[in-house]
Give the backbone structure.
Amino acid sequence: MKTYLYGIINIGASAFRMAVSEVSSKGIKEIDYLIKPLRLGVDTFSQGYISLERVKQATEILKGFHNKLVEYGIKEYKAVCTSGVREALNKDFFIDYVKIHAGIDIIILEPSEEVYIKYLAAKFSVANFEKMEKQGVVFANIASGNVTLSVSKGDNVLYSGALPYGSLRLRQMFRHIAPSKRHRAFDQYAENMVSTVAGTINNTKIKNLVGSGSSINMMLRIFKPNDDFILRDDLEKLYNRIRAYTKQDIVEELSLRDDEAEVLVPTLCTYIHLLKYTGADRFHFSPVDFPSTLTHFYTGMLKDKDYQKRIKQTILSFGERFNINTAHAKRVSKFAKKLFNEFMDLHSLDKSKFDILETAALLYQVGEYIDPRNVTYNSYYIIKSINIPGWSSKDIQLTACVINSMGINKTNDEKIEVANLSSTERLIVNKLACILRMAYALDAGKSSIIDDIEIIDNDNMILINAQVKKEPFIELFTFDKIKHTFEETFGIPIDIRTSMIYD
């Protein structure tokens, strides 16, 4: 592996950070780090958009960062923004203005991606994290704009999302309330956050809390812990002492900066409520900052070897909340994988698209929970609303569209969402939906009559040889009904024959 320089620019809700690192086979060595305070979130969280004045201030900071890239001769970099830009109504204007005037290409980090990257950093930097996961762990990144949460137990991610409970956001929301009463509003909001998550995961018992985020450095200076945890008793004592203080009181007593003093009380409040939920007497913390995490992630140094296993289990657990037939879902997934791999020359899709197909295969049934007469349409709207750790909203949308396109006869209303995709995306959806139809047909009776399949590719026909335990009447009928869509999609006819398995 060659040695090269890599740049990360993190545009947060309260500050802009830049890390310059040397990347080699030996690892990553940070050689420069810049931080420039600018509270974009004050605008976004109070008025919904970034003022022109702050857009220009941000551009000046990013011009300086661009000059630093040029100074170091950096060719590879990522500039990412989170909630301060992501939630602004004029985010497209902001990104375009910065591109034109500062020469920086910005990408918006979606909530599911943000949670996943931060979770990975904690997983590999906190001692005994895997042991805590087996007992159940809440990972909380308390930032200025959002609290990003990942709740996991064993191999199952029970919850993953970015919630609007960030410390600066709370401070802005309740800035008009007198300091003597403001902490009550923080308490109510944090309690609501915890109850929302607890309800989502059906009150599964979780025993541990791991924290990260820009607030950690502030907490370390205040509490000066000798280990990688801070005790709940210490948090509660400090909170009870200062919760009604003014910002200036906090600055003077704890020697904090103004911006830190503003967010200390809501930060303490959030940690305390999360600790009450878990019942833990302490929270462990990750010392790794976000720019460093992003550098490791985008250079491929931060990898999750168990990712596919955990995501599949998480997806199945989500489906089970809607009473899906899990055995059937696994069989459809098995056939979909075999068909996808055998038809690589026909569909010419890269292997990353199989993740979309597999998820669609496992979850297409969730719509039965609402109405079994219109499964795929109902499933579309359920799937469109979920978060999968590490997945973009586009991947979620494509998965939902694959499921919606599974049915052959669609009304105009049901086709609207697919019509809004690009031509390339529509082609991907059509190919994956066609493969999913075939996989579903091979277990249409949901009774595992077809044990396995063999693909025979002749010049003018593809033949599926199905190994069966008995005559698969429902499967053959369903296959015959939908096989014409395969020829319409891939330009070659397909048929099926059966061979009996004898014990």
Summary: Residues 48 and 394 are 24 Å apart (CA to CA). The first helix runs from residue 40 to 47. The domain at 4-109 is CATH 3.30.420.40 (Nucleotidyltransferase; domain 5).
